[in-house]
Amino acid sequence: MKLVLLGPPGVGKGTQAVNVKEHFNIVHLSTGDILRSEVKAETDLGKQAKSFMDAGKLVPDELLLQMMDARLRKPDCDPGYLLDGFPRTIPQADGLEQLLEAMGHKLDAVISITANEEELINRLVLRGKTSGRSDDTPEVIRQRLEVYRRQTEPLLDFYSSRKQLKEVDGIGDIPEITERILEVLK
Ligand code: AMP
Q1: H or E element in which residue 4 lies
Q2: Overall number of domains in the chain
Q3: Which of 72, 77, 105, 140 is paired with 27 by a 20 to 30 Å CA distance?
Q4: Digits of tens for pLDDT over the chain (186 positions)?
Q5: Does residue 58 line the site of ligand 1, with CB under 6 A?
Q6: Backbone angles phi, psi at 178, to 5 degrees
Q7: 13 included as an active-site residue
Q8: Among this protein's residues, is 2 annotated catalytic?
Q9: Residue 24 sits in a domain of what CATH number?
């Protein structure tokens, strides 16, 4: 099973990703998590990514595409994967499409989890109290939502026109939302 999980910050992508990857026994690739560990390890990539991340901006497409090219070619990805937080721009989606084609892979579906903005801000502000993430502060949250609307939302049309998009309502209990996701994948 090869999946992309799309949705605004705070919609619960990370939480749902864990449940979905366990269900299908596939790897969960969160580009946010990968980048945070690169920052922590002070690698070249981490050093280049940090200032963008702290400002709530996107790390340049080229860096993400190189990182994901290397990651998706690892053997643990052969049985399937769940991409969480990637692609996030049209150039990334184009790059991913080319990469998948070169590897002979095909996405089974792109799941878009939705929620209204008020709910998202409430959840992110709450998360910011315990997450320790430097980008969960009110100004950076606003910036990240704005970046999502401007740069990532166009992917909904991109994947919808390819008949790959499945929308799932992200308001409700965690297990209930997982069920909705598994249902649209049947
Ligand atoms: P996330 O944990 O998915 O909210 O990602 C945290 C931050 O990592 C984002 O605000 C971006 O700065 C960076 N990031 C993660 N994924 C991507 C991506 N696909 N393209 C560009 N930047 C990304």
Answers
A1: strand 2-6
A2: 1
A3: 140
A4: 999 999 999 999 999 999 999 999 999 999 999 999 999 999 999 999 999 999 999 999 999 999 999 999 999 999 999 999 999 999 999 999 999 999 999 999 999 999 998 889 888 988 888 988 889 888 899 999 999 999 999 999 999 999 999 999 999 999 999 999 999 999
A5: yes
A6: -60, -45
A7: yes
A8: no
A9: 3.40.50.300
